[in-house]
Give the backbone structure.
Amino acid sequence: MTDIKADLQYAAAKIGPFARVRMPTEEQVARLGAELPPSLVWFLETYGFGECFDGLFRLSDAEPLRPVLALVFEADADLDHDDCSAVAYTAFGTVHLWSKRFGVLTVDLPAGQVFCQALAPTLFKGMAETPRIPHNDDRMTTALLPFEMDDVDYSDADDEPMFARCVEQHGPLEPDECYGFFPALAIAGPSGPKRRVENIRRVKALEHFAILAQLATFHLTRIGPNGFEEVRRIG
């Protein structure tokens, strides 16, 4: 695991330092050991649950988000909330997960999208479907961490990053808060004109995530030649 540790240390140095860090308890470390690859457990045990990019990206314990995942996945044939553990989430509600079956997953709660390379590989224009990478738990864990702020920022209706403008207009977030769209994008349309900074409010993160999980109809989504493509409905 030495090479993976070096990669994770590089990632931590690139995106850090982490702020408002809470170190995991012995009980949490033991539970994480049963849910996550060893390299990811080591990372969380070393760096703790903290935030980077001024609060845009937050490492998280999985348990508080498990009820939200249950609402998202419902009785899906492939995806099960008991198989998936949230590792981090963004200030806008994009949740980064680890699945024992499929590796890295991303759930965009505001837009109702679920991304999983193992189930819906990226398809580039003029190319065949991206080959599925052989499952290697430790090697895949680096994909859970961003290297640049733009990797995890949310875009508005004009495809412009929103986080810095949200902080300026609405103020920085408290540890238990997120930026929520009002009306929710599940109602106004994920790519509609309401996807703007002026329609953002600061709200309690877990409560808002649970509401979004019930409002949206989630779809397994992939990146195709012309943008996002819905593969199938989740649940």
The longest helix spans residues 2-15. The radius of gyration is 17 Å. The chain has a mean pLDDT of 92.
